[in-house]
Amino acid sequence: MIMHSKLAEVRSSEVGATEEIHLRFWHWFSYDPGDYAEIQISAYNESTGDWEPWETIETIVDWSSVWSPMDIDLTDYACNTIKIGFLHITEDDVNIGAGWYIDDVRLVLPERFQETPSETGQADIYEPDDTRDQADITDLNEGTVQLHSFHQSGDQDWIKLYGSKSQVYTFNVTDAGSRANLVLNIYDGDTDYLLKRFYFQAECEKSISWTCPEDGLYYVATVQITPEIYGDDTQYSLEIYPSFTAEPATLELNEGASETITIRGGKGPYTVVSSDKSIASVQLFTQAGAFVKVEGLVAGTASISISDSSPDTEARQVMVTVIESAEAPPAGTLSKAVIVAGGGPYQGNALWDTTQALARYVYIA
Fold first, then answer.
1. Is the pTM of this model over 0.70?
2. How large is the C-alpha radius of gyration of the chain?
3. Of 82, 133, 150, 337, which has fewest CB within 10 angstroms of its CB?
4. Is 271 in a helix, a strand, or coil?
């Protein structure tokens, strides 16, 4: 087993014994089975002058499709000096996920610093983001979840993003406050032309879809319908991610051969099922992106069902036809084969198609 860790330091002010304190951060992670992460804590023992052994307070497994917030209550450690560890653990094998990415680590005292927006005009963590020039870049193809509020009159929340041509993106607004009546505008990044406008009512949970017209830069601006309303109960959560696809929709392969299905968008983890495992077997990989390896076993047809974790998304069906292999040549017939290296058709192997093409050319020649 291989363990990797990095140390950083976050210091808070003195915390009283009765005060509530939380560890909060944002993270994205992708782990294969057997690999995981741990959040650990160690308290300083003033009587001995030593640090107590590390204690695991949270374990991270599987994978997330978007950046998400984490909140851990550390109130039990008030009045103590503590160390917090973020530990990445992976088995020493060939199946290695993308790992664990952490940002915006904070120690929060809610009673002192109220995080729910109030009439005092407290800004959310993304401020200032009131204009296109202040917008932070977001990767649409990875997805994002952001918690916003309107903390002052006329407040706007801008996001800058890159979209892919013909890709359908889903915008979810959830946890909207009772005074959050939103307008979401999508602008062309080059011309500032308004491409699409969506409306979201207070206390709503609503999803809308938008098809990106071209590869390029876009801006999303969220504003209050009534700009003079701000403060308490104007918070909302905005989630953006690529809509769920699985391609190609059909596969044809010989007995003993294998092909891949590429999964994009949606919310992980994914579930993959073959309607007839005796005809076509399936194996899901999520090391970099997500894809399914389909192996043809015997001649026949089978349906591959691929689902994401969203209850509102229908499963994607891929029809697989396995063709009976040709009979073996008679004894004594000269045969030939081309053996290649290159790692196989995993997601991100940009040379694999070229390797296969060259191998076919050599075989024919």
1. no
2. 26
3. 337
4. strand
**Upper half-sphere CA count for residue 42 (Cβ side, 13 Å):** 13
Task: Return the pLDDT at 119.
Answer: 44
Question: Residues for the chain: how many in total?
Answer: 365
8 Å CB contact between 241 and 167: no
Q: What is the pLDDT of residue 6?
A: 47
Structure tokens at 250: 């059909």
Cα separation, 123 vs 156, whole angstroms: 11
Q: Taken in order 342, 347, 350, 356, is the CA torsion positive or negative? A: positive
Query: Which of 157, 146, 156, 150 minimizes the C-alpha distance to 119?
Result: 150
Residue type, position 350, single letter: A
For the residues 202-208, what does the mean pLDDT come to? 74
- The answer to whether 290 and 284 have CB atoms below 8 angstroms apart is yes
For residues 7 and 70, the answer to whether their CB atoms sit within 8 Å is no
**42/52 Cα distance (integer angstroms):** 5
Give the residue carrying structure tokens 């809610």. Answer: 110
Contact by Cβ (8 Å): 162, 214:
no
Query: Per-residue pLDDT tens for 162-201?
Result: 888 888 888 888 888 888 888 899 999 888 888 888 888 7
Q: Are 272 and 67 in contact (CB under 8 A)?
A: no
